[in-house]
Amino acid sequence: MVAGFGKAMQNSHMPSASHGESILITGASGHIGSELCRVLRTQGRVILPIDVEPDRPRGVLPCDLTLKDNVSRLFQLYRIQAVIHLAGLLPSAYRSDPLRGAEVNLNGSFELMRQAVNSRVKRFVFASSMSVYGSSPRAGPLTENDQATPDEPYGASKRVVELVGQTLASGRAFEFVSLRIARVIGAGIKKTASPWRSQIFEPLSRGDSIKIPFAPQAMLSLVHVEDVARMLVMLEETTEVRSSIYNTPAELWQVRDLKQLIEKGTDAQVELGHDGALAGPVCDGDRFVRDFEFIFQGLRERLSGRPASNSGQQ
């Protein structure tokens, strides 16, 4: 068990049984998790945020999903009505240690589902990935009706969790819905092998450039972290889940056009990859747009408010 786990729960300002049911958020210290917690708190929702890397000032409690005692204690101490499951190793970390990746992304997810079923949780929202469609570009944006054919362990693990969740839902264990998330952008990303996704919204030191490691002709599906958080909230709070699988609505950008947009709207210099690196398939999120009447802010508009570079720094 994580050191101080029980004590942290007792001393935290998290909900107790007397506060009614809460929303369990895993991976709450991450980029999407932090924004999701902010949105839900703004709405006055009762949340239970956890992460293997706790953030006590923000109320994020320590919990390692690969330790069964950690997970079972959560459900013993709190009344949980819904789970939004974001926690997991990212692709680069998964490739570096695939056995650890499988332990976290698969075994951790399965234990969380087991406890959710035993505790009669109403709905389980899973943060999946466009990686379930594989890493090779295809002709045109992919819809949820296109076959999921992951060709590496990270994407395969996401697809397996989807299949297990759908099977549990078919047996009425809980309601299950998966959001297949496109390439997430937004300020404040701490752990990423692609820092450009955050840098395009942040001030740069003098002489620094933004490196987007794709060929000029590559196509990217981009979705802002604020929009992803809003989508997850909608999936948790909707009265009826119409589909068990949704792609995130996203903007499609050719890399050469993205470079021009960034350089035109800011004083940042953008360097592109020149080795022909493409970016995998792009997604069609029309199903989510139709079912939830979803509107998102475009990248061009978001970049218009980007802070200037910090030219005074060396």
Description:
By secondary structure, the chain is α/β, with parallel strands linked by helices. It folds into two domains: 16-182 and 224-247, Rossmann fold (3-Layer(aba) Sandwich); 185-220 and 251-303, Alpha-Beta Complex (UDP-galactose 4-epimerase, domain 1). 36% of the residues lie in helices and 17% in strands. The chain contains eleven helices and twelve strands. The protein has helices spanning 5-11, 31-42, 68-77, 91-96, 98-118, 153-170, 196-199, 225-237, 255-265, 286-292, 299-303, and strands spanning 22-26, 47-51, 61-62, 80-85, 123-129, 175-181, 183-185, 210-212, 219-224, 245-247, 251-254, 270-272. It has a seven-stranded parallel sheet, sandwiched between helices. A three-stranded mixed sheet has the order 7-9-11. Strands 8-12 form a two-stranded parallel ribbon. Strand 5 (123-129), helix 6 and strand 6 (175-181) form a beta-alpha-beta unit. Helix 3 (68-77) packs parallel to helix 5 (98-118). The longest helix has 21 residues, at 98-118. It is globular, with a radius of gyration of 20 Å. Residues 1-13 and 308-314 have low confidence and may be disordered.
